[in-house]
Structure formats: C-alpha cells, structure tokens
What we know:
alpha/beta
Amino acid sequence: xxxxxxxVGPRDGLQNEKELLPAQVKIQLIDKxxxxxxxxxxxxxxxxxxxxxxxxDAEEVLQGxxxxxxxxxxxxxxxxxxxxxxxxxxxTEIALFMSASETHxxxxxxxxxxxxxxxxxxxxxxxxxxxxxxxxxxSTVFGCPYEGAVPIDNSRRVTDELLEMGAFEIxxxxxxxxxxxxxxxxxxxxMLRDVPTERLAGHFHDTRGTGMANVAAALDMGxxxxxxxxxxxxxxxxxxxxxxxxxxxxxxxxxxxxGYETGVDLNRLVEAGAYIQEQLGRELSSxxxxxxxxxxxxx
Length: 299
C-alpha cells in the first residue's frame, strides 16, 4: 500500500520562521529532501514579498534546485500575477488557498469568501490553459482561531468550488491544530459522500499533540496523501509558540511502521532535518529527529 507525502516545509514551514534564511540554504534543503526520496515538494510561495519576506527569493530558489523529472515541485500563489511568476520559474503546478471560515479568510487574505472565489477562478482558468496542475488548500477545516467550530458545510462548499475550478486535489487543513481523531472521521465522512478519497489530502498540525493520531484516523477513512514538514517546521501565527506541521520524519516512521510504502529513505530524511535544524540554530519539534540524533550522539 502506497501513501504520497507532500513536503511543505520549504514553504509552509519556513514562512513562519522569524529568521530570513539565505536562498542557498533553502536550495540545499530542497535538494536533500529530494535525495531522501520525496516526490512532491512545495518549494516556495509567490505571495507578495511584503506579506511573506521569508520567501521573497522564490525565483532564486527555483532556479538553483535540482529538478529530477520524477519530482513534482509546486508553489503557493494568491493571484494571476503570482501564477505568472510561478510559470516563468518553470513550475507546472501551483496551489491555491482559501479558508473555510469567513473571519480567518478576511484576516489572512483581506477578502471575504465571496470575494475570494472569483480571484481563484481566474487563477485556475489561466493556469489550466497553460497546462499547469492546480492544487487547492482549505484552511481552518477543523477550527478557526476567531470563530471556533467551523461548519462542515463551509468546508464542503469551498472544496466543491475548488474542484469545479479544476483542482486535481484538495488538502484539508487543521490550521491551528485543534482536530481530534473523532472529528477527523466525522469531517471526512461528510466530505467523502461527494468527493472520492484520491481527491483529498490531509494537512495536520501538531499544536496539541494529536497530529499523528489524526493521520491514523484519516488513513482509516481511506486518505492516502498527507502534507508534512521536515523537522516539524512551521507553526501558526494564531497559536504562538505552538508546534508546527506534522513532521515528515515522524510521518514516515509511522507509515513505514504500519506497513505503508512511502518511497522515502528515513535516514536521509533525518539528515535533511538535522541540516535545517543546524541552519536555524534551534531544536525542531520532530520526535524522530530528536531520537535519531540522540542515538547517534550516544553511539
């Protein structure tokens, strides 16, 4: 049984770091992730650099990385201008994002949900016309920092809209890390009434320590694609000090331990985690990374 991993550390992880890393460090990180066997990597973002200065070097990074033919690289884009920059950088896949809660959408991209749909439709139309693949993110599916519980119908509507726009896959995000396995099963049961499992991915954060349990619940419901971040990089501006995305090392360890094939070399993945941890100068949250590095020191 195979599970696809979408590595989002270079984008979703690093965009939350206070420190601005040199482009060469990001290039080396991505190359190490690819060398570990990851086949899908979200490398950067083409959001306005004023909003996310950590990723202002998107073109330089994409120009510098190795690009094996069997690896799919993507970038997050907010509008047609971002999509055009991604295309000019040689990407063939982009990701669109939108919240399932009105307040979070306004805070995050300064637009209401109704104002966001036409923008995304235009981007998707232009991208598909150029032969690009479009992935969709739905944020705050399992809870909003402003509104609390988010109605499942909100997530279903955004998902349906993105699929109608031509997105090949929708990543359902636990943006602030509040989901529990019971909730994951309930949300997926509702979503899967209309959407096949192969069109959905899980995007969990480990803010409250339930990230891997939520992956297990999603696996039980049939999902076979998960986003994760090397070292557990990331976080959420609405949950200060919280752990970030689920760690790629932890995810691979779990999946391999219960019999799923990932195509990822865990030893080389740990090397990538150790590299970015050293560059950031602080310990990352990945439990497998901590355990493996401690074992090596002891040995």
